[in-house]
Design brief:
Layout (H helix, E strand, L loop, with lengths): L1 E7 L8 H14 L5 E6 L25 H11 L3 E7 L7 H8 L8 E9 L4 H12 L3 E11 L4 E2 L3 E2 L6 H22 L1
The protein binds flavin mononucleotide (FMN).
Length: 189
Amino acid sequence: MVKIGIITGSTRDARINSQVAEYVLQKAQSMNVADAEFEIVDIKDFDLPMFNEMMPPAMANKEYSLDENNRWSETIDGLDGFIFVTPEYNKAISPALKNAIDYLGAEWSNKAAGIVGYGSTLGVAATLNLRTILSNTNVATVGPFGAFSLFTDFEEMSSFRPAEVHNATIQAVIETTVNWSKGLKSVRG
Ligand SMILES: Cc1cc2nc3c(=O)[nH]c(=O)nc-3n(C[C@H](O)[C@H](O)[C@H](O)COP(=O)(O)O)c2cc1C
């Protein structure tokens, strides 16, 4: 059994992120993937302040000074893989998502991740930015990725109405993330 966290990528009160995260969760659950369970992990729930730990997380051995971060650490540590749902802010991921990733080290390591991006230019620049960031924490990002357009997959840029064409790609993101997450379990021992 692998546990996959669908990680939200925006904390704005008016974010459209939650709709995309819910869609990924429903798609994953409807696929009845063997030996895999899925849950949404909302970074907004953790109230992480702008990074303020004593030690760089890579050197912290999962021991942190902030209560918020200890809760975040336990949650990410308990997952085998991730599907990040990321908006694009100035050709990168949001500062909230970067901050949440920065807070941890070993909890991410030797796990797999899929990426589902969205934005006026499909979130592609954010997806590539996220691949680079995750490579530094030993997260293996799968090849297929979601790329939703603010103009054609959202009504009035706010209500998520994904075009049918995305179905197969999102399924491939989910399937590959699960398969790689199962494989990487043996690397973690
Ligand atoms: C500060 C900021 C910068 C943005 N930069 C980009 C961008 O570089 N490329 C893009 O496609 N969309 C960009 N957008 C549009 C966002 O993708 C869009 O507002 C989206 O709704 C943000 O996701 P959220 O609502 O879940 O926070 C930007 C939005 C903001 C607020």
